[in-house]
Amino acid sequence: MAITYLYDKDVKSNSIRELFLSVNWLLGDKPEKLQRAFSHSDKVITAWDGEKLVGLINSIDDGSLTAYIPYLLVNPDYQKQGVGKALVRMIISEYESYERIVLLTEKDTVDFYKKCGFVESPSIHSMIFPQQKKASHT
Fold first, then answer.
1. For the chain, does the N or the C end have fewer beta carbons within 10 angstroms?
2. What 3-state class would DSSP assign to 8?
């Protein structure tokens, strides 16, 4: 397996869909929105096995202090083979001069990020605003 890593925001929506659905993320059903989100990210690094998108990481930053990592995905067939760690190392190297790199993660992936050098913040608590469909009034 020879994985190729590319800095590329222009990822086709069908490749994004397949990758997101491979890890059972429902956002895979919105590939056009994901494609638009990645095109507006500051950095996107992709991992390819030939023509197959097998991994992706992206970041959004403020230009000098803080970078955020919204997504890291690796197709389950390629997990535990160093693809995710390589993507994390690559994105971190882009922000060496920044004060902090922030990510939100599911509880079951905390150990992976700790192995990549992240630490849990005692002072930051994550909050989300749930976007719900507004009921239409007739």
1. C
2. coil
Cα(42)–Cα(63) distance, rounded to whole angstroms? 9
Taking residues 39-60, report their average pLDDT: 97
Q: What is the average pLDDT value for the chain, to the nearest integer? A: 90
Domain annotation covers residue 19: yes
**What does pTM read for this prediction?**
0.85
What integer is the mean pLDDT of 26-37? 90
Write down the residue that tokens 């990210």 correspond to: 41
Beta strands in 27-103 (DSSP E): 43-49, 52-61, 66-74, 100-103
Closest of 51, 54, 42 to residue 18, by C-alpha:
54
Please check whether residue 121 lies inside any domain of the structure: no
Per-residue burial over 74-87, b if 16 or more Cβ lie within 10 Å, else e, is bbeebeeeebbebb
Domain extent, residue 92, equals: 4-115
Number of domains, the chain: 1
Does residue 31 fall inside a structural domain? yes
The CATH number for 101's domain is 3.40.630.30
Residues in the chain, total: 138
133 occurs within a structural domain: no
